[in-house]
Write a structure and sequence with these properties.
The chain is an all-alpha fold. It contains six helices and no strands.
Length: about 130
């Protein structure tokens, strides 16, 4: 397994960039959405984060899809905790492996924290990704 902090930093930037693109190239909207997603993860857990993403309306759907895709990518390709099936079904399997679940939540939490800071920095610099 690679350095987890570097993984979080790399994906934090990807989350900020992709969520911004999904929300009409708005770093401000990306920061807001990432903050909401982080709050759901911290307060309710990984399964709730994915349900939150699936429940978003038209205004936030683009950002939610990106969060869901990148979450699946981290869990499948980097941490190797899930397979390529439906994300909610895969997470059900992960819920029974407590050590893996805790690590997955910690990695995603730090990633979303970095993503929020990246989005905030993009907003401050006036950088709207095209």
């Amino acid at each position: 397994m690679e350095n987890l902090d570097r993984l979080c930093a790399e994906y934090g930037y990807k989350f900020a960039k992709q969520v911004s693109k999904g929300l009409g190239n708005s770093s401000k909207a990306a920061e807001t959405f990432i903050t909401k997603a982080l709050g759901v993860l911290q307060e309710q857990g990984l399964y709730a984060l994915l349900l939150f993403c699936k429940s978003r309306g038209d205004n936030e759907k683009g950002g939610a899809v990106k969060v869901e895709e990148l979450t699946k990518e981290i869990l499948r390709e980097k941490l190797k905790f899930i397979n390529d099936g439906d994300i909610l079904e895969e997470i059900n399997g992960l819920l029974s492996r407590l050590d893996d679940l805790i690590l997955a939540i910690q990695v995603l939490e730090k990633t979303l924290i970095y993503a929020r800071f990246h989005a905030k920095a993009m907003k401050k610099e006036g950088e709207e990704l095209k």
